[in-house]
Each structure stands twice: as structure tokens, then as C-alpha cells.
């Protein structure tokens, strides 16, 4: 009933044999030699493949079934029992919990910074360390809770996002 897409990464000693007998097209084939060097590249490739094949978040609310592209989502907010997605052009609300929907977002692009907020790292302009706020390119400021601050700071110090 669902259109699910998976990425397979295979590790094998005999690559030509695996290529002949494999009925599926794997995302990446890793030889057992130099495994550590290529594992990160393989996972990154599989992530990009998944993002390319399913670049949207599907919302089923009382009005309609909507698809919001990941690149358009600026931040996500939890208000009591509702989740509000703030995109570049609109706000969409539906009943859910942040803990239930965060696995549906690409983990390299979306980051939980508070019990009530998830941000799209591509839309963050800067991280204010003194006030523990994320300043978004759209002008909003999102607070970072104490419990998530170390995770958020580590994320932005390890990537070239900002």
C-alpha cells in the first residue's frame, strides 16, 4: 500500500560475483578492504539517494493530503497536541507529536533544538551562543534549550552549513 524506497549497502570480498547474482541494484558496493575509508562515503550516498527519491514530508490533516518539500520547511513547532510546519510560504498544522515525526525528516538536514522545535539547518543564518538562539534566514529566532545546546553547537561546528 505504501511506496517505500530502500537503500542497500553491500559489503563483499568478491565484487564481480556479487554483481552477477544480485537481483537488486544496491546503492553502494563496498569491498572488505579499505572498509572504514569508504563506509562514510557509502552512507552519505545512500542518504542523498533517499533524499532525491523522497524529498518531501506528507501531511494528512482534516482538509487534505499535502506534500511539503524538505527544502521549503524552515522550522517545525509543537503547540500542545498540534504540530505546525512553518514553510517559506505557509503554516500547516496537524495533530501529531514531534517525537513521532522527526524520524521522517532527513537527519542531516533537520535538527531538534528544543522540546518544541525542529529546525531545517539549511535555513539557519547564525547561532547566537550568548542568548542560545538560532536566527533563521526568514527573520525568526528559535530558542535552543539547555539540554539540546551541546548537540546543536556540535552539529554546526562539524558542518559547513553556517
Quick summary:
This protein is of the alpha+beta class. Helix content is 27%, strand content 35%.
Task: List the defining traits of the structure above.
globular; 162 residues; 35% strand; 12 strands; alpha+beta; 4 helices; three-stranded antiparallel sheet
Report what the structure shows.
The chain has 162 residues and is an alpha+beta fold. 27% of the residues lie in helices and 35% in strands. The strands form four sheets. It has a five-stranded antiparallel sheet with strand order 7-6-5-9-8. A three-stranded antiparallel sheet has the order 10-11-12, with no helix packed on it. A two-stranded parallel ribbon has the order 1-2. The longest helix has 19 residues, at 35-53. The N and C termini lie far apart (40 Å).
Layout of secondary structure:
Elements: E1 9-12, H1 15-21, E2 28-31, H2 35-53, E3 56-60, E4 65-69, E5 73-79, E6 82-87, E7 91-95, H3 98-101, E8 110-114, E9 117-120, E10 124-128, E11 133-136, E12 141-143, H4 146-158
Parallel strand pairs: 1-2
Antiparallel strand pairs: 3-4, 5-6, 5-9, 6-7, 8-9, 10-11, 11-12
Give the overall shape, derived from the CA principal axes: globular
* Helix percentage: 25-40%
Write down the Rg. 19 Å
Q: What is the oligomeric state here?
A: single chain
Distance between the termini: 40 Å
Order of strands, widest sheet: 7-6-5-9-8
**Poorly predicted regions:** none
Amount of beta strand: 35-45%
Q: Give the class from helix and strand content and strand pairing.
A: alpha+beta
Biggest beta-sheet profile: 5 strands, antiparallel
> Tally the helices: what do you get?
4
Number of strands: 12
Mean pLDDT: 79
The string of secondary-structure elements, in order, is EHEHEEEEEHEEEEEH
Amino acid at each position: 500500500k505504501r511506496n517505500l524506497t530502500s537503500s542497500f549497502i553491500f559489503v563483499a570480498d568478491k565484487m564481480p560475483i556479487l554483481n552477477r547474482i544480485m537481483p537488486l541494484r544496491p546503492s553502494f558496493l563496498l569491498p572488505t578492504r579499505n572498509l572504514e575509508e569508504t563506509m562514510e562515503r557509502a552512507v552519505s550516498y545512500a542518504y542523498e539517494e533517499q533524499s532525491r527519491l523522497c524529498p518531501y514530508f506528507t501531511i494528512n490533516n482534516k482538509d487534505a493530503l499535502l506534500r511539503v518539500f524538505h527544502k521549503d520547511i524552515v522550522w517545525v513547532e509543537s503547540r500542545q497536541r498540534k504540530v505546525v510546519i512553518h514553510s517559506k510560504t505557509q503554516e500547516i498544522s496537524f495533530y501529531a507529536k514531534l517525537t513521532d515525526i522527526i524520524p521522517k525528516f532527513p537527519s542531516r538536514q533537520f535538527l531538534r533544538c528544543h522540546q518544541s522545535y525542529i529546525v531545517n539547518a539549511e535555513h539557519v543564518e547564525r547561532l547566537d551562543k550568548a542568548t542560545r538562539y538560532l536566527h533563521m534566514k526568514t527573520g525568526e529566532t528559535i530558542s535552543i534549550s539547555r539540554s539540546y545546546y551541546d548537540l546543536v553547537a556540535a552539529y554546526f561546528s562539524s558542518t559547513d552549513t553556517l
